Amino acid sequence: MIHLEKLTYDNFYDVFGLKVKKVQYPFVASNMFSVAEAYVTMINGGHVYPFAIYNDKKLVGFIQLAYGENADQDGVSMEKDSYEVWRFMIDKRYQGRGYGKEALKLALDFIRTFPAGPAELCWISYEPENETARKLYASFGFEETGEMCGDEIVAVLKL
Predict the structure, then answer these.
(1) Hey, which end of the chain has fewer CB within 10 Å, N or C?
(2) In which element (H, E) is residue 135 found?
């Protein structure tokens, strides 16, 4: 059963060891870099939620969510009070098993508890070449806005 667990001293080194397939390297930042960004955001008053993704007791992925001003970046015109799926990856050994879809559902369920405050939108960005991500996000109702976040396509979901 897929579930999310907070990043802790017990699991963060293992999260750093997760890897995507070589062809997916351009699509996602390293987990170590993502956790460093989360730390800097948090110590500066931002709201970030890094989670390890587990299938029962087996670590299979990582997802990081954000809220507020830290979610307003790179010229994207999202409202300040919006959530973002900031990072999301499933380890190459566990891809193609539906874990990503289950984890994204859990992440959106968490967001809808509004842990940092109310919001109308959740957004995500992804590389134009990443068709797997595009299809997954569209299946949850994310719609592309026509905006770009750097080189990435922006899609939003009404909460």
Answers:
(1) N
(2) helix 131-139
pLDDT digits (tens, 9 = 90+) for 32-88: 999 998 899 889 888 999 999 999 999 999 999 999 765 445 555 555 689 999 999
Q: What is the reported pTM?
A: 0.89
Domain ranges of the chain: 2-120
Q: Determine whether domain 2-120 maps to CATH 3.40.960.10.
A: no
Q: CA triplet 19, 69, 118: central angle to 5 degrees?
A: 95
DSSP string of 35-98?
A: HHHHHHHHHTT-EEEEEEEEETTEEEEEEEEEEGGGGS-TT----SS-EEEEEEEE-GGGTTSS
